[in-house]
């Protein structure tokens, strides 16, 4: 069964076309990278999948495990129930900065526990234990009682991941989770995401700016340009030459030479010759 | 899975999207509008009389001289009445702050749809635009002369003010943590409690404390129409030309308001 099914999704922001007739299928348990230059529609697509935005009216649909999340630009009635199965990690972490890290992680429970208990903030001892466990898993157990605003960027992002771990969602969407992090924090965060995907079978969609991370951690890559899907296939086929063909001079911002050097040898072999089945598309 | 949908031509010049001039136009209209309003109000507000402030300042000095020898003979009584005034302000502000939370959130345009925001805002306008004195007269009729009428008057008026200030704080929040909470499957109320309230709480506290200070002054004025407290005694003294006694009360009020200011400064630091 597909974890995420998108059909004919378009979105305009004023005069700008942010998404243009996107259709995608993502199977359960996949780890997918979403790449593209700034403004190519990666964030917008992820925000639609978690139901924070609605598409243009028309024939657009988004289904989560076969249940309708939005249809023709309207959220369906069960959207709140579906959201609890979709964990979201944001580029800017989106923690409540004046609450403690532990409270921020406990917020991940809100969709799971009875509404009255969540509203009053009465979390059980078991839920608090699991929240601490999640913080230990992402490697920052010592900051539980600090205010979220006192953490470094890398720590905040890991706290945000702990929040989604507590949520126990089946799908994890990460919107440029490493874009504002230093390389070593970035690698830790990607490793946690890959671990969650591998060990718990959680479907992950990660939007990334650098294609090196996509090739290292994600078997499949979807590339966007101007709101359209321009590549959808194994990440290994996404060589630098392919990127240059896709994005022209914009491809420079997608390639980070020193980040993951073991992939550099791919370049400059002719991608089309190596992968004949991709060739017609480029012709 | 392996399928390539479309390849765009590389490096095609991208069309520029035209600038939206309406925003700039509206900004200009707003500033010009403000200037016109000020000019329009000059004569009706008799602003041309400003020269009298300098030519006839002597009259003010003469009147003020009457207050130059304060008489603290009844100091203990004045303090008691001052305390009553503070107690009136305390209850009026507390009830207003409690009610201003739901009204403030419901009149924030990023929290509720326009068909709720607009009616709630108009109701708050009504609360705010009518002076405490008018409400006090109204409540005196219902609950009789005394401090309780003052509490109710302050309560209604302050609710209108705090709801407006609270809603402006809510409209200025960072929406991203709220979205993160929505993404966990939380309800709207939970979004407000965990995402909005922690962000605005220091500002709300600050506003409520400021209104408490203002309400201590306002409660004094309410004494005029018999709502109790030091105001009542003060106006009786002034009406009877007992300026030394009035001066003593004014000094007590000044010291009290300063004290409250110092205390609320400390409280504000605590909540930041």
From TrEMBL, chain A:
Ranges where the ABC transporter domain occurs: 4-251
SMART domains to which the protein is assigned, alphabetical: AAA
Zinc keyword on record: no
Keyword Translocase listed: yes
Gene Ontology molecular function: any one: ATP binding
Pfam families named in the record: ABC_tran
Secretion signal span: none
Keywords attached to this entry: ATP-binding, Cell membrane, Membrane, Nucleotide-binding, Translocase, Transport
Domain of life: Bacteria
CDD domains attached to this UniProt entry: ABC_PhnC_transporter (cd03256)
UniProt cross-references to PANTHER family, sorted A to Z: AMINO ACID IMPORT ATP-BINDING PROTEIN, PHOSPHONATES IMPORT ATP-BINDING PROTEIN PHNC
Family per similarity comment: Belongs to the ABC transporter superfamily.
Protein name: Phosphonate ABC transporter ATP-binding protein
The species this protein was found in: Mesorhizobium retamae
Gene designation: phnC
Automatic annotation (TrEMBL), chain B:
Spans through the membrane: 25-43, 88-112, 133-156, 217-235, 241-263
This protein's record includes keyword tRNA-binding: no
UniProt-listed InterPro entries: MetI-like (IPR000515), MetI-like_sf (IPR035906), PhnE/PtxC (IPR005769)
Keyword Repeat among record annotations: no
Subcellular localization, as worded in the UniProt entry: Cell membrane
Keywords per UniProt: Cell membrane, Membrane, Transmembrane, Transmembrane helix, Transport
PROSITE patterns per the UniProt record, alphabetical: ABC_TM1 (PS50928)
Source species, domain of life: Bacteria
Bilayer topology term: Multi-pass membrane protein
One Pfam family of this chain: BPD_transp_1
Domain ABC transmembrane type-1 as annotated: residue spans: 82-264
Main location: membrane
Family: Belongs to the binding-protein-dependent transport system permease family.
Protein known as: Phosphonate ABC transporter, permease protein PhnE
Organism for this UniProt entry: Mesorhizobium retamae
Gene coding for it: phnE
